[in-house]
Design goal:
Elements (H helix, E strand, L loop, with lengths): L3 E5 L15 H14 L3 E5 L7 H12 L7 E7 L2 H10 L4 E7 L2 H8 L16 H14 L4 E7 L6 H14 L3 E6 L6 H15 L3 E5 L6 H14 L4 E5 L13 H10 L18 H12 L20 H9 L34 H10 L7 H18 L5 H9 L1 H7 L10
Parallel strand pairs: 1-2, 1-8, 2-3, 3-4, 4-5, 5-6, 6-7, 7-8
Amino acid sequence: MPKIYIVDVTNRDGVQTSRLGLAKLEKTIINIYLNEMGVFQTEFGFPYTHHEINYIRANLELAERGELQPIRLGGWCPMRKQEIELAFSETPLQHVNLSISTSLQMTEGKFSGRVVRTPEDNPQAPNLIDIMQENVRLARERGALTIGVNAEDASRTDDAFLLRFAAAAREAGADRFRYCDTLGYDSPMTIYRRCRMLAEEIGLPIELHCHNDLGMAVASSVMGAKGALDGGVDAYINTAINGMGERAGNADLTSVILAVTKSSGLADTYPLDENIDLSKAWKLARYASYAFGVPIPINQVGVGDNAFAHECGIHADGALKDRRNYELYNYEELGRGDPEIIDTGRQITCGEYSGIKGFRDVYGRLEIEFHDDDEARHILELVRFANVHTQKPLTNSELRFIAKYPDLAQQVMTMSPPGSQP
């Protein structure tokens, strides 16, 4: 039986949210949390972008050291030779998704005749089929172990060309085909039909990348996955923590997992990757909220403050008698339920101007000891830089990471503009 896997794109698509972003240290902690949650793959960045390269290298080194295992670290590249060459020459990347637009609207609206969709459209102009196949083969030659081909704006691409493009991707050696509902245009019915069609006629595993412009990203994602599984192939749903992403966002990670495992018609019928640990959802959602600086909506699925709140007499009475009366799933399944202790007395924090005594107090409360003063002062200096790097108080997870992997923390936080002296 084919399965549903999760490919989280918070660190690639989520960080493209206008007016928001994440520091490289925060992206690293998110990768660690996603790994703890059992997510199959994190699309962790842009390996051809200068300011990402040290972060990409450091996270791949974390995988080598066993910290980021078994999660896969996947990069994203446009279908351009220069960027693909740079990604594989500058980083030891192994997994990549290559993206190009396929709809008539985007082909004409973005390329303005410089690129056509098929050789028949204009034999003298570059065409999408050839460009895609050349870039897939190039990535494989440069060392890619797995390659996903992204059809940007697939939901507005006609069936005939979409099938031809996907077949050409399979012929070129692609491992997966990413169906991108780039504008959130699909409905659950249309994406089911088209993904089943692709699965049955092409046979490649299908990724579902849905945006939330019409409020249907989660519904379309799970129905697209159902279409893929009904067509006989695995499905890989792209998610983002707390639904972050461009415009109205991407499919929310927690909502997708709950929809697959709890909803009528999907639960117990369409298997989700058994490595998923939903109990990490609460911690991950709260960290992403803090890192992005975006509060979790009070009515957010599973992790919002009101997700398990009852006030109406009938509801409160029913929930107290048997939580199943008014709660579809248990809050403990998401890692919720422990009381939160807030220290209202003296607080010592670490920041860019911290001294050694306060620093030792903070790490002492984390039960982390240093071998000598030199090590302590080295970690203190990194903590100071980290505070400048994130521009917010450091979390316990960030402090622990810096102490455990000081060399990689330094690499993650190191950026220099192109052409600058080392």
